[in-house]
Amino acid sequence: MANHSSVGVIGLGAMGMGMAQSLRRAGHTVNVFDVRAEVAQKFAADGGVACASLESIAKASDVLVSVVVNALQTESVLFGDGSVQSGCAHHLKPGSVFVMCSTVDPAFSVGLEKKLNAKGLLYIDAPISGGAAKAASGQMTMMTAGTPAAYAKAEAFLNAMAAKVYKLGDSAGAGSKVKIINQLLAGVHIAAAAEAMALGLREGVDAEALYEVITHSAGNSWMFENRMAHVLAADYTPLSAVDIFVKDLGLVLDMARASKFPLPLSSTAHQMFMQASTAGFAKEDDSAVIKIFPGIELPKAK
Known about the structure:
With 302 residues, the chain is α/β, with parallel strands linked by helices. The protein has helices spanning 14-25, 37-45, 54-60, 71-79, 106-118, 131-136, 148-161, 174-202, 207-214, 222-232, 242-258, 264-281, and strands at residues 7-10, 30-33, 49-50, 63-66, 97-100, 122-125, 128-129, 140-146, 162-167.
């Protein structure tokens, strides 16, 4: 059934563009929409359909994949400003599947499933991980939860976009909870990596040598290896911005606070990203959290 369904992607940012490309490479005709019309047109020039509005992409797609920044944008994509005809939810055909890939509060995802089910629409809670390069190569991870009926329609598309599609439950919420726990680790690891590199710089250790040793030692992490390479190159072009972790670690703490669960490391990392954001680095790569440390000289671009 899925092979005869049409797919749409909303949001052609670092992840969404790669996901749309993976779907196209798998042989699907991909409808796309982005608020930057020129980005959608550029994608369509190599095959695909650039839709001029949320209404048109909703009407053209049986499975609609949303890759926007947060819950607020997701709500806007689906329900617009609340008028009768605004937003995708008013134009999707009954039985269509909405695949939500943003990192959100699990309670928001649970509520969204109920709202869409009430309109005769199916829903998959499907946060993503892996970064832009893995999205572009179809090698990213999806943490999903949804009904068997939703999977039956969407599975071929999910498998085209991701190397690992984890099915974590038959109703919304589980995917978002696992993604938030992943973000706990990601945020804490970036903060710890920055702290370690900053200490090395303060102590006069050669940054390149420190990076070489740590990446071949037990103290290494994927985030140290990936993000401290940005610091060494003095390249803070945002692949994932500081403010993403202000948001995501905030969600981590919100989830834990609801059950009065202590998260001392997450709290500290969140404060570090908040400090970096308010110091003017909000839109820089998240590795720019290293810039909060005083008395160090960061590597310069070569």
